[in-house]
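Dear support,

Our group has been running a series of protein-ligand predictions, and this particular one with FE2/S2 (inorganic) cluster is the one our PI (initials K.S.) wants archived with full inputs and outputs. We had some confusion internally about which version of the output was final, so please treat the block below as the authoritative record. The input we submitted was:
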Amino acid sequence: MGFLDKIFKKKEDVKSPKGFNSLRVKEVVKVTADSVKVVFDIPAEWSNQYVFIPGQYVTLSILVDGKEERRSYSICSGPHESLAVAIKTVPNGKVSTWANQKLNVGDLVFVSKPEGNFNWNTKDAFIVAFAAGSGVTPMLSIAKHLENHIGDMRLFYGNKSESSTMFLSDLKTLKNTKTHLFLTQEIKEGTTNSRLNKEAISELIKSDLNLLKADAYYLCGPEEMIKSGLETLKLFGVSKEKIHYELFTTPILLVEKQDEVTEVFKGTSQVTVILDQEKIEFTMDENSNSVIDSLNREGYDPPYSCRGGVCSACQAKVIEGKVTMKMNYSLTEQDIENGYVLTCQAQPASEKVIISYDA
Ligand code: FES
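Confirmed final output from the archive:
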């Protein structure tokens, strides 16, 4: 009996959240002592829904103590491989602990379609990547796709020790990716005994100025590493258009992006939301928290995952009116120019607003 089957007495009680499919777990593979790779079976009729761009993630929705929990995990699959994510246990992590301790082959899990803006552009032939811990998962997918292209990746990958390094053996088999490990708790030949901090990244660049010739820079991992990478690359004159980063949690250190918050609208706004071709109308004012919260209050279930401005799962398009965001750590300037907003952070800034999840 699968996980969801155990929770719900009758199969018909299992209701998929909007935008999710119930997928059968095909494999659960131990990657390190505290992480697993979960491979899903995609029925043929849903295969089109799970075509992904390397770098994207899926969101898992599970019930823990009767409460729905959603978490996003980067896809780590290569071309022609089954959809897979890797999940590392985090302290007090409800979903990560469930995946590492309870999830079994044959279980059913609600899985969203691939999402996210941390996308490999096939034009990027020479990539420099910085990852730490489970931040390697999107890099692995990009690296595997690079094998079929004319392109190279230089991956600088931080971990505590070699034994805690996810996917090291997979990375070693790749011809177009050269991985260099940074280990904080182990001294080993061919690796660097350091954190991937500003000094280490700076030394790397100074010792190989070719790293400045990359077409794109990808960073994924703890916020501190991303901040070090961003600041160091900026210091060496790398243009921000070439830099892509993916956060797993709402940041504390990268607060300057919050400057994007603009004026607060005072008054009542008539909001229309288009969700799955349905028109939903309600009002919001300056005390309303976010478009998503208002939709939930109205009994609707729009897409979301982090609710912290990080994942972009709640992205929708403003068709009419003005909307401000409290935080934004995932939409690019171009996305915003094109009218996209994160509805978990969105508040109306005009008397009439129309937002569409379908656009
Ligand atoms: S739900 Fe993650 S950015 Fe809104």
